[in-house]
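User: Continuing from earlier, I have the next pair ready.

Assistant: Great, send them over.

User: Here they are, in order.

Assistant: Folding the first of the pair now:
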Amino acid sequence: MVINLLEPAGTVINYNSAQAQQQADVLKQLCAVDATATCAFTPTSETTVDGPQHQVGDAFTNASSLEADYTLTEKDTVDISDSVDISATLGGKLFDLVDASLTATYHHEWTTGHEFEESMDAHVRPMTKVWLADAPQMTRDTGNTTITVGNTTINLTGVYFDSPAPTFNGNWILMSQSINGGPIHRTVLH
């Protein structure tokens, strides 16, 4: 791939976190593939955040007139995500760069995927369905990327990457609802 920039020599272009689409375009074109650009990621912070809550597995429906006991056992496979929407297959080179920077700064390996597990017994009322939801804990690494192409420098600030935090076991929630609709009841497990 040959990329030609038409800016005058010494041009500096800045994209902040509010310009996520522009950041994504630049990263995909210049850092995620084997381009002639030099890319550097500098971590600025590492925090723990909750991933998006989502249903894990199928619901169990007790359509009978009797109470039922049911064991829910589920596995939630969580992968990396980021502020610039670059897939793991597309971002191989970029993710290697980020991993090396995070390992050097925080002295731990970056986890690109993890499976959280939960098993619990549920007492299910008649005409009720139950299911498990998870909002897994993620490690959010935020940083700045500097890209040099020829005599042009592009600065991307506030780019973040979320990776599974395997020292936790997810934020599991038992959800229940009447099969006729109505409010969803939540029981936080941990």
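And the other member of the pair:
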Amino acid sequence: MQDVTVFLVDDDPSVQKALTRLIASKGYTIECFSSANEFLNRNHFDGSACLILDIQMPGLDGLQLQEELTLAGYSIPIIFITAHGTIPMSVQAMKGGAVDFLTKPFTGKQLLSAIDKAVQKNVKQRTELSEVQEVKNRVSSLTEREYDVFRLVVQGLLNKQVADQLGISEKTVKFHRRRAMEKMHADSLAELVLLAQKAGIAKETTH
């Protein structure tokens, strides 16, 4: 897959060398780091990527780095590799959203399969984030009144109820509702509700 960067965090130079050769042979760009802190000091990467992460390292270990990334809102699929894995470790890693947990020695085929799965997950995440941002951009194009009508309509209120709550006429509600649907690119109320949910608006409550 083109334009994908694989980050490898492992303090063993021989592992870095072997995996770099393997991963690069499949056309991926690869960046190696010898510690969790070294990776954290890298500028935030905004492209398609996955992270191969050793469990046991000096300083922050792999599971602690996973926690740090989660707290920082850095969503990147992680593949854990370790020579000293335990069931509790693997459970913690997978609960934290890891794509795979490979115990050394693993085969090149196993790792490449895990990378493929991680990259697919990353592409899906990025697509979903892009779609959400597009919906939020449409929401931001609404006037204040269009937004008020939109917010109440997607909560299930009828035009008359919206009119009563906002202190405007039903005719005005219908006008702003139509304008909101046009700007949101929605052809039906059901579609409008789905868009609102995607933007987090349907979770709001009326006052």
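Worth noting for the second one:
The chain has a mean pLDDT of 91. The radius of gyration is 24 Å.
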